[in-house]
C-alpha cells in the first residue's frame, strides 16, 4: 500500500480495499520507523487518526472526493489550527496556530488527512534543510547527503514513502530543487494561482505553495485542491481553475521545447547534463521538436534575487517581536532590548544574514542602488522569458546544477549555497510555473531532475508534458534502497 | 572562489565591503542584538553576499521600468462589510504575556 500513488490509493479507498484509518496508521508507523531522517517536526497521531475516521465515514456515505482519506504531509510553513507551526524556527517553537491557512482549509474540506508537519529550512531560507532549528533532514537516497531545501522534510517524506504526497513552498526553488534531489515530481504554480493566506511569509512577491508527489498525475490531483482565487490573499488571481487531470494524456506531438543555451554552459555537472540530454531525446521520440532559446539575463537572477528576497523578508519578519506570539527572550532591560534579544535568540544565522542584507538594501541612501536596480533587472529577466516563449511552448533544462551534496559541504558558505538555485530562481522572479520531474540517475547513483518552465497559468500543459514522459519512463518509480 | 554555470564572471568578493560599525548599525535597524565577535563574522559574510549582489551593475538598466510584482494588476477593493469574527481570546492565548485583553510589554512611558 505504501508504494501506491495518490491516484491508486484514491481507488483503493473507494473500493474499500483499505480504510483511511488503516492507511494513516501504516504511514504513521513508517514515520516512526524512519524518524532518523528527521523529515517531520510534528506528528500527532491522535489528530491524524481522528481525521481519517471522519474520512472513512464520508467514504462509507458515498460523499467522498478524489482526495478523501488520502494522507498528506504538510510543510510546517502552513498554519494549521491546533497544530504546532514552527516554520523551522526557534522563534515559533511554541506557536500553536490559531487558524488554518487556506491551503490547509482546502485539504480539510477535500477530506484529506494531515499526516504531520514536515521539517524545512528556517523560514524557507535555505537549499539544504540545514538551517532548520530542528536539525537537518537526511536524503533517503544517501543519508549522508541533503534532501535539498527549503521543502526538504516534505521531499524526504515522500521519497521514503512516509507519505504518499506533500505540500511545499517555492520562493527561489524550494519545491523544485528538493524534488530533483529526491526523485520526485514537484510543481511551483504561477504566482497568484495558490493562496498565500496562512502560509508564513518569506518574500511575498515570490512565494508560492505547490504539490510534491511521485507522479504528475498525483501532483495534478493535489493542485486541483490547492489552486483557486482567495479573497484573503491580495495577490491571488481571479482566474478559473481547470481540471488539471483532464489534459494529462493529451498528445505532445509537435510540442516545441525551448532549450536555453545559458542553462547548458560550463559549470553544469557533466553527469547531470548527460541525463538531461537523454530526457530531451526521449521527448523527441514522443514527437516533440527542440528549438534553441536564449535567456540572456539569467546570470543576473541570483544577484537580483538576493536583493529582492531579503528586502521582502526583512519587512515580513519584522512581525516577530515577542509581543503577540512565539518566543520571547527571558532577560531584557526595556522594550527595545526585548525586541533585539528576542530576535537574536529566536532567529538562526542564515535568517539574520538575510534580514540584515534586506535592511541594508532598503536603508536610506542605498535604495536606488540595490532595491530599485534589482526590480529593473527583474523586468529584464521576465521579458527574456516572454521572448523565449514566442518560439516555444515549454522550456526545459536541469533543475539543479549537481545531484544532492553532502550534509555540511556548503553550510559554512552562504554564497556557494545560493548557487544551488541558479536554474530555478529566475522562474520565481518572472512569476511563471515550473516543475521538476525525475529524469534519471547520475554516476554517483543519485537522482537528477528535469526542469520544465511554462507560460503564465499554463500548469495544465506542464503536467501533461510531464505525464507523457512518465508513461514511457520509469525513473519516477524507483525507490531508494532500504525504503521498500 | 565560487564558479557556476551561469556566472560569466567569478563572484567578486571584494567589491563592496561592510565594516563592523556598519554591521552594528544594520543590526540595530533590524532589531537584532549582536555581540562583537558576531559583528566581525557578519561583516565578513555579508560583504561576500554583497560581492555577489554587485554583479547587478554589469547591466545598464537606464529607463527600465522597475517590476515589483509578477502580476501588474492593481489591488482589489472589497465591500466595506464585516467579514471576520472576534477571536481575541483565542489569539491572545498564545501570547507571551497578556492581561485584561491587552498585550504586556516592558514599560515605555514613565
Describe what this molecule looks like in 3D:
The complex is a heterodimer of chains A (484) and B (110). Chain A has 484 residues and is α/β, with parallel strands linked by helices. Chain A has a single domain, classed as Amidase signature (AS) domain (Amidase signature (AS) enzymes, Alpha-Beta Complex), CATH 3.90.1300. Helices cover 37% and strands 12% of the residues of chain A. Chain A is built from 15 helices and 11 strands. In chain A, the strands form 2 sheets. Chain A has an 8-stranded mixed sheet with strand order 4-6-5-10-11-9-7-8, sandwiched between helices. A 3-stranded mixed sheet of chain A has the order 1-3-2. In chain A, strand 10 and strand 11 form a beta hairpin. The radius of gyration of chain A is 21 Å and the shape is globular. Chain B is mainly α and 110 residues long. Chain B has a domain at 7-60: Orthogonal Bundle (Histone, subunit A). Helix content of chain B is 30%, strand content 4%. Chain B is built from 3 helices and 2 strands, in the order H-H-H-E-E. Chain B has helices spanning 20-29, 36-53, 88-92, and strands at 98-99, 102-103. A two-stranded antiparallel ribbon of chain B has the order 1-2. In chain B, strand 1 (98-99) and strand 2 (102-103) form a beta hairpin. In chain B, helix 1 crosses helix 2. The relative contact order of chain B is 0.11. Chains A and B meet through helix 9, helix 10, helix 11, helix 12 and helix 13 of A and helix 1 and helix 2 of B.
Amino acid at each position: 500500500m505504501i508504494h501506491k500513488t495518490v491516484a491508486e490509493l484514491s481507488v483503493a479507498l473507494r473500493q474499500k480495499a483499505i480504510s483511511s484509518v488503516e492507511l494513516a496508521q501504516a504511514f504513521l508507523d513508517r514515520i516512526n520507523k524512519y524518524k532518523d531522517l528527521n523529515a517531520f517536526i510534528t506528528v500527532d497521531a491522535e489528530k491524524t487518526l481522528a481525521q481519517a475516521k471522519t474520512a472513512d465515514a464520508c467514504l462509507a456515505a458515498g460523499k467522498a472526493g478524489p482526495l478523501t482519506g488520502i494522507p498528506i504531509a504538510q510543510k510546517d510553513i502552513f498554519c494549521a489550527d491546533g497544530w504546532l507551526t514552527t516554520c523551522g524556527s526557534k522563534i515559533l517553537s511554541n506557536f500553536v496556530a490559531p487558524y488554518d491557512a487556506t491551503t490547509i482549509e482546502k485539504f480539510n474540506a477535500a477530506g484529506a488527512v494531515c499526516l504531520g508537519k514536515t521539517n524545512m529550512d528556517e523560514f524557507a531560507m535555505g537549499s539544504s534543510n540545514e538551517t532548520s532549528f530542528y536539525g537537518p533532514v537526511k536524503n533517503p537516497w544517501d543519508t549522508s547527503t541533503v534532501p535539498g531545501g527549503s521543502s526538504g522534510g516534505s521531499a524526504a517524506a515522500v521519497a521514503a514513502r512516509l507519505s504518499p504526497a506533500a505540500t511545499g513552498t517555492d520562493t527561489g526553488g524550494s519545491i523544485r530543487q528538493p524534488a530533483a534531489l529526491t526523485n520526485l515530481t514537484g510543481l511551483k504554480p504561477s504566482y497568484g494561482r495558490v493562496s498565500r493566506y496562512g502560509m508564513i511569509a518569506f518574500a511575498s512577491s515570490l512565494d508560492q505553495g505547490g504539490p510534491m508527489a511521485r507522479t504528475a498525475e498525483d501532483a495534478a490531483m493535489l493542485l486541483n485542491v490547492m489552486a483557486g482565487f482567495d479573497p484573503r490573499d491580495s495577490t491571488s488571481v481571479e482566474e478559473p481553475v481547470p481540471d488539471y487531470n483532464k489534459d494529462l494524456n493529451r498528445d505532445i506531438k509537435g510540442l516545441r521545447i525551448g532549450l536555453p543555451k545559458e542553462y547548458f554552459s560550463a559549470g553544469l555537472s557533466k553527469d547531470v547534463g548527460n541525463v538531461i540530454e537523454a530526457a530531451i531525446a526521449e521527448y523527441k521520440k514522443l514527437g516533440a521538436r527542440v528549438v534553441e532559446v536564449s535567456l540572456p539575463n539569467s546570470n543576473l537572477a541570483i544577484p537580483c534575487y538576493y536583493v529582492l528576497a531579503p528586502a521582502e523578508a526583512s519587512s515580513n519578519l519584522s512581525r516577530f517581536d515577542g509581543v503577540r506570539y512565539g518566543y520571547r527572550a527571558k532577560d531584557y532591560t526595556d522594550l527595545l532590548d526585548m525586541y533585539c534579544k528576542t530576535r537574536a535568540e529566536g532567529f538562526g544565522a542564515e535568517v539574520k544574514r538575510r534580514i540584515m542584507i534586506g535592511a541594508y538594501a532598503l536603508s536610506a541612501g542605498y535604495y536606488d542602488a540595490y532595491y530599485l536596480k534589482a526590480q529593473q533587472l527583474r523586468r529584464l529577466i521576465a521579458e527574456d522569458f516572454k521572448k523565449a516563449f514566442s518560439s516555444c511552448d515549454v522550456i526545459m533544462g536541469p533543475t539543479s546544477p549537481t545531484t544532492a551534496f553532502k550534509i555540511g559541504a556548503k553550510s559554512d558558505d552562504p554564497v556557494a549555497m545560493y548557487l544551488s538555485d541558479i536554474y530555478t530562481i529566475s522562474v520565481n522572479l518572472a512569476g511563471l510555473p515550473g516543475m521538476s520531474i525525475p529524469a534519471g540517475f547520475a554516476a554517483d547513483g543519485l537522482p537528477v531532475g528535469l526542469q520544465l518552465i511554462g507560460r503564465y497559468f499554463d500548469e495544465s500543459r506542464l503536467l501533461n508534458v510531464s505525464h507523457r514522459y512518465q508513461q514511457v519512463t520509469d525513473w519516477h518509480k524507483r525507490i531508494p534502497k532500504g525504503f521498500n | 572562489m565560487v564558479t557556476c554555470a551561469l556566472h560569466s564572471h567569478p563572484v567578486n568578493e571584494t567589491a563592496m565591503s561592510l565594516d563592523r560599525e556598519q554591521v552594528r548599525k544594520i543590526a540595530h535597524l533590524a532589531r537584532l542584538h549582536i555581540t562583537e565577535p558576531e559583528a566581525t563574522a557578519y561583516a565578513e559574510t555579508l560583504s561576500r553576499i554583497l560581492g555577489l549582489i554587485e554583479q547587478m551593475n554589469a547591466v545598464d538598466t537606464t529607463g527600465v521600468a522597475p517590476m515589483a510584482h509578477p502580476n501588474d494588476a492593481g489591488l482589489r477593493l472589497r465591500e466595506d462589510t464585516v467579514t471576520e469574527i472576534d477571536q481575541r481570546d483565542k489569539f491572545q492565548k498564545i501570547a507571551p504575556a497578556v492581561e485584561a485583553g491587552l498585550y504586556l510589554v516592558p514599560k515605555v512611558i514613565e
